[in-house]
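Quality-control log, excerpt.
Job 1 of 2 completed; input and output follow.
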Amino acid sequence: VGPHVQVDPLGHAGVEVEVGRCQIEATANFGELSTVTAVVDGLQLLRRRQALLVLPPRHPVRAPWSPGPGRRQPAAGHSRATGTGEADAFACLRDFRPGDSVRHIHWKSTARAGRPIVRQHAEEHVQRHALVLDTFGAVTGSAVFEEAVAVAASLAAAPRGGGMVLDLMLLGPEARRLTAGAGAGPVTPLLEALACVGPCRDRPVSVLGDLAVHHAPALEGAVCVLLAWDEARQAVVRRLRAHGVPVHAYVVRPPDAATTLDDRGPLADRPDRLVAVPAGRGAAILAGTP
C-alpha cells in the first residue's frame, strides 16, 4: 500500500517511495485533474493503472570492455563487403543511431537537417562481446543475487566503443539473448530484462554455458557474472576459453566473504580476469577493477 496524497487545485506535492528492483503494479488516481504525470527513473506514470518497472542500480565501471583479437562481424543492417578495415568506401548518409561514433557525423548535413546525420560506409565492422549472467540456484531477493544483477546492469550500461555489440545471455523460464549497440538497438531492453530476472532452479548451469558456447565463434570476449566459483561455473569459463574467447569473471559472494579466490581454476593464468565481489561492495570494486 502506497502513500495517499491529496493535492489542492494548482498545488503540488512530493511523494517519496522506496522500492527495490522488481516489477510492481502501481495505481494512480488523480480525481478530476486533466493532466498529471509522475516520473520514476525516467519512466512516466500516468493517470491509469499500469506496470511500473524499476531498473537495477548501476555503478560506474572502469574500462570493462577491451578490444578483442580482431574477430570482427559486419554491423547490423550493413552490407557485407570484402574489406578488412573498420570501414570501407563511403556509401551514403543516414540518421545517427545509438552506438555510432561521433567521428562519422557529417556536420553540414546535420546542420541542414537539424538532427545528427552520419556517413555510412560500404561495410562497418563491429566487435561482439557477451555478458553472461548466472541465475542458477539463487534465492529471490538475496543480497548475493541482487548484487549480481546490479553488477550485470552496471556492465551493460558502461560506455562502449561505437563498433561494439553486446549480447546479454541469461536464463529464466527460457534461455534469452538480447543484443544492444552498433545499430542493434539501445541498452534499455537489456536493463529491462535484468529488472525482471529471477533465479533459475530447475535446470543446470551448463545450459547457460551451452548458450554462450553456441555463439562463441562470433565473440571477441565474454564477461561472466557468477553466483559461485564451483566446478560447474568453472566449466562454463573453461568451455568459452577452449573456443578462443577471452573471459573475465566476476564472482559475487556473501557480504562477509573475502575479495580474493584461492582457486583460480581455468583463469589461473590470467588472475587479473577473476574478480571476487562481496555483496554490498560491488560499486567500489567495479570502479577500481579494469
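Job 2 of 2 completed; input and output follow.
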Amino acid sequence: MTDFLKCSTLLNLKERVSGKYKRLNKTLFNVLRSKNTPKTMKTNKNCKHCNQLFESRRSNHVYCTTSCKTKASYKRNNYRYVPGHYEKSEETNTDKLALPANQDVLSAVQALEDKIERFIQDKSINTNSIKEAALGSIAADAGAYAAKRIFAPKTLPATKGDIVSLREELQQLKNALNIYKISKFPTNF
C-alpha cells in the first residue's frame, strides 16, 4: 500500500510541474521513480526447451540458459548431433528424387538385394576366398618389389643395410683423405 501511495504522489508531482522547469522536474521524477520501484520484473517461468523452472529477468525470456536456447534452435532447424558438433541433417523426399524406372536397373537392384539377403541369412564366412585374396595380394606386392629391385633399384626406399654400407664408404673416404693430407702436407715441426 505504501508503494502505491508513493507512486501516486510522484504522479501528482509530475502533473503540477510548470512549463519552465518541466525538463528538470521530469529527470527528478525519473530518478525518484527508479529508487522507489523495482527496475525489472522477475517472474518464475518454465524453460521452453528443458521445462526447468527459472527466474526470468525480462518478460520475453523463454529459455533458462543460452545453452537451452541454442539446443532448441538446433531442434527447430533439424540439426543432428555428430560427435563433437551439430550438423544440418538433410531431409530428402524420395518421391521427388526417384529415377526413371528401367527394367534392367530394377532387375540388377533386385539381384543385389537377393545377394544381401543370402549373406545375412548365411552367417558362415568362406575362409578359402579370404586366404586366396591375401595370398594373391602378397604375391602381387612381392612381384612389384622384385621388378623394382631389378629394373629400377634407385626408386626403392633405403634399408638399414644400405645405410650401414654408406657409413662404411664414408669412413673409407675420410681415411683416404687423411692419408692424402698427411702425405701431401707433412707436419714435421
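Post-run check on job 2. The chain has a mean pLDDT of 76.
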